[in-house]
Each structure stands twice: as C-alpha cells, then as structure tokens.
Amino acid sequence: MITIHELRRKYIEFFRARGHAEISGKSLIPENDPTVLFTTAGMHPLVPYLLGEPHPAGRRLTDYQKCIRTGDIDAVGDPSHLTLFEMLGNWSLGDYFKKEAIRWSYEFLTSPDYLGIDPEKLSVTVFAGEASIPRDSESAEIWRSVGIPDERIYFLPREDNWWGPAGETGPCGPDTEMFVDTGLPACGPDCKPGCHCGKYFEIWNDVFMQYNKTSAGAYEPLAHPCVDTGMGIERTVAMLQGKKSVYETEAFTPILAVLESITGKKYAAPDNDPEVDRSFRIVADHIRAATFILGDPKAVLPSNIGAGYVLRRLIRRAVRHGRKLGIDGIFLAKPARAVIDIYRSPYPELVENSARILDELEREEQKFLETLQKGEHEFEKMLPNLLRNPERIMSGRLAFRLYDTYGFPIELTEELAAEQGLVVDRAGFDEAFKKHQELSRAGSEQVFKGGLADHSEIATRYHSATHLLHKALRIVLGDHVAQKGSNITAERMRFDFSHPAPMTREQIAEVERIVNEQIARDLPVTMEMMPLEDAKASGAIALFGEKYEPIVKVYTMGDFSKEVCGGPHVARTGELGKFKIIKEQSSSAGVRRIYAVLE
C-alpha cells in the first residue's frame, strides 16, 4: 500500500530518470505577487519561467510543492476539502510537449513499477475548443495511441479543460485530465469524468501552456509552448489506498490520534454525531495548515490583515472546534508536534522553526481564549434582558456587537443562546456582517490609496508617528530603508521596512531618541496638494509600487519629514506622546518589522 512519502519519492524518481532536474519547492508566501496571499498551485512559483525566462536548472524540471487555498475554508470539515495540500509536478520549459507528457503520464499511472492502475479503469478528458481556440484533437490522438479507446476520451468545455493564468494575464492553455473509475454506479445516463457523484476520481492534470493571455484579453501563441502538470498527493494516496477520505491516510491519522488522546473521544466511531467527526477534521486540517504557515522560511504571523488574518482565522477556528470536542485549555501545540513529525523529512524547515511554530500557536491560542472569556462574560450581562423578551429572540445587532467588539464567533453566540432557550436572529446578524464587510472593503481601498480607514484620534496619532519613524530609520540605518507596509490598531503601530539584518539595541535606542526629539520639538504638520512628479522633485518620499492619483497630498513635519500620504495627521508632533519601540523582528526576507506604542 503506497504512502504519501512513497508517492512523493516514486514521482520524483520517475521524472529524474527522464531527464528532469529536481528543484526545491518554494515558500508558501509568494514573492513579488500581490494578487494572492499564498502559493496556490505547484506552477505558481514557475510563472516567470513558463513565460520564457531561463531556469538555472534547465528546461525539464520536477518538484513537490506545498500549497494553500483559502477559498474553501468554510467547506473544510467534509471528507475531501483541505486548506493545505501538496502538489507533485513536472515541467517542460519549451522542451517536450504533448506527446511525451501524455505518454509519461500513462506510464507512471499504469506501470506496475509505479502506481500500477488498471488501464481499463482510466478515462481522460480533453479541451473541446471554442470560437477563438481550436479543439485539442492532438491530445485525443495521443491518448488513442497509448490504448485509451474513444469511448473513454471526453471532449469538455473551458470550465472543465482549460487552465487560466495565475492572474489576469499570463501563460494558459488546454489541459487533459486523467480519471480513475472508482467502481461506484453511474449517477445517470450523462455520468462522465468531471461528474461529482464519486464514480470518477481525478488523479492527474497535464496543462499545455500554448498561449499567453494579454491585457486586452487576446490569446497569443507562445513562442516556446510549455508543459505544467499537477498531482495532489493527499487525494491520490487516499484513492490508491482505497480510503473513503484523505483523513484516513497517514497524512492525518497521527494528528487525529493526538486529538483522540486529548478529548477521550474516537474519530469516526460508528455512533458518532456527524458534527463530532466534522470538528475532528477541522482541527486536524487547520492545525496542519497553520503549522506549515508558521514553519515557512518566510512565515507570516497572526494578524488582522492579509495572510496573517487567514492564519489567525485558521487557528481560532481550530480552537473553537476543539472546544466543541470538549477541550477547554491550551492544546494546539500537541497536534502541531504530530504535523512536524510527519513531515520532518520532506520539509525540514518545520523542525528548524518548531520553536516559533509552538510559541506563536500558544500565544494566539491564549489570546483567543481570553477573547472568548470576555465575550461569554458580556453575554452573561446581556442575558437578564434577553430572557425578559417573550419571543426569546436575540437580535442580530446584539450578536454582531459581540462579534465586532470581542471577536466572539456567531456560532458560539448561538450555542450560548440555545442553552438558555433563546434563538439568535441570524438573518439580522448576516445583514450587519455584510455592512461591516462593505465598510472593511472601502477601508482597505482607502488605506491602499495612502489614507487611513480609522480616523480616530489614537489612529491618527499612530499614523503620524509612522512618518517620524520612517525618517528616523533612514537616518540611522541608511537611505535603502523603505516602508513595506504598516498596520495600526488602537493599541499599537506595526511598521515593515526594507533592511537586511536585525537592528542592534543601540540602533533601536537611537531611532527612539530621534523620534522623541521631533515630538519634543512640537513641529508643525502641514499639507500641500501638488502633481506627483513635483512632489518627488521636492524631496517627498513616495512608496514604491503604490498607486497614486495625478495630484497627491504631501505632508511635511517641520524641517524633518516630507512624505506623499493620504492622511489624516495631527496638527503638531507634540500631540503624539512618548514613542516606544516594543519589538523589532523579521517580517520576511530582507524586511524587518517594528511594533511601537505611544505612551
């Protein structure tokens, strides 16, 4: 019975024997790609090479790649959806094309030396073509040549057999997908590969990058067509082992065993409530994904924005479902250790960064448990009034207040309400949440354009202080320092900046001294509006990569700082209070992060 580690090894060995160089998988945090928060597919890090840039390892490549997809987080908990998964891939960068790719796929799938799948159980799909792009008859003919009969070759449309670019533009093309007949009965006369009834299991996907989609929406033939293939390790092994779910494979059984020992409950026991098994799966999936994110060389930490927000959501959802399983205290480090142990060989960075993984999990878990306690306390205060309501309904507005103010999950509010014989107006909550999302989106756009969504007095003070900090860092560390991001809450500011090494204690102290000196000088803060080019010519700092309007605001703080910014700001630096750096740490490669407060 093949395991996840054996499949990974067999695949790499197969393609190395056919002239492919094994390359290392890349970070979960994409480089130079603001369109996605995480690496979402095996081909993602290779897009520049698929577009024609030469790869130092050559034109035939193979690897395994860790990936995160966040669109299905709410679906995780069923037997198949995963947040983190591994992709096996092989690539031709303008070398071989459809014939070799398809024949090697067939050989790896059916050879007794590799996966040994019965050829009679294989069906394939190819692109049916559309107005501007021809039908992929070439791939169909190659499948016939290896022995797949016409009745098991299906021509399907774009939504099934077309691979779009990673972003709005880029390499793309038709694909051919391979399916194994699971032996389940057909769901009807139209049952075929791609149907969701379970009869056909997709095991592999060969993408033929023939075109480049331009910004105008045209499909131009690539000068050097490429091959990009992908096989998901977890799902493939589950099918080969005859398991009903990925959670029954060794990718998850050690994690679930730890959860069983903590809870005293059995996963997939015959008499289990389906919700119990769902919670087991959610905790196992989310802690596995969080461990990989925190263990990544370019790890992000839990936060309220971007990838850090996704990480926080995964951790907190795991904690919440741990509570549903009866776990009250801190527990995530134990299943995280099981994840590290499973993957210590293919992903040694998990072992190297284990201290950070376990520390951050415990810190975030503790923070969330405090949040839950505050929310439960606030609910108790609301309860007497709620019980006086003869309709026994808790308004959506009140439920949203618990969520917005305390981060208290609506599912827990519904749980507490049900224990008291109350019903939460979920439609009212959803409406309030939708308005909140719309405001958040508007706020994100505002911040992106150089403004500040939160115009409260403390947020304004922190935002103004980032200008002083930015200039002080350039004085102490050098002109290479550039702002790479910032995040402001009512409690602190976070400032990311380019710098290759940790700051020394003396450098941190000197930056603090300079900022506080400018605050003590009580400098006037003035604003002018001018064309962007004039602003830059005047010496104002503008963020690289930022999108500015033709006319911009330039904020000047006395004779010290001058930046293009959307505001708002204090009138004088003396309003800021005492500036204190509380932490300086790595954010990512070549980027440092400072947390600071105004006392």
Automatic annotation (TrEMBL):
Cofactor comment text: Binds 1 zinc ion per subunit.
Binding site for Zn(2+): 463, 467, 565, 569
Enzyme Commission code: 6.1.1.7
Localization per record: Cytoplasm
Coiled coil: 351-378
GO BP term, example: alanyl-tRNA aminoacylation
Pfam family, one: tRNA-synt_2c
Catalytic activity annotation: tRNA(Ala) + L-alanine + ATP = L-alanyl-tRNA(Ala) + AMP + diphosphate
Keywords on record: Aminoacyl-tRNA synthetase, ATP-binding, Coiled coil, Cytoplasm, Ligase, Metal-binding, Nucleotide-binding, Protein biosynthesis, RNA-binding, tRNA-binding, Zinc
Top-level EC class: ligase
GO cellular component: cytosol
PROSITE patterns: AA_TRNA_LIGASE_II_ALA (PS50860)
Family to which this protein belongs: Belongs to the class-II aminoacyl-tRNA synthetase family.
Chain's role: Catalyzes the attachment of alanine to tRNA(Ala) in a two-step reaction: alanine is first activated by ATP to form Ala-AMP and then transferred to the acceptor end of tRNA(Ala). Also edits incorrectly charged Ser-tRNA(Ala) and Gly-tRNA(Ala) via its editing domain.
Protein name: Alanine--tRNA ligase
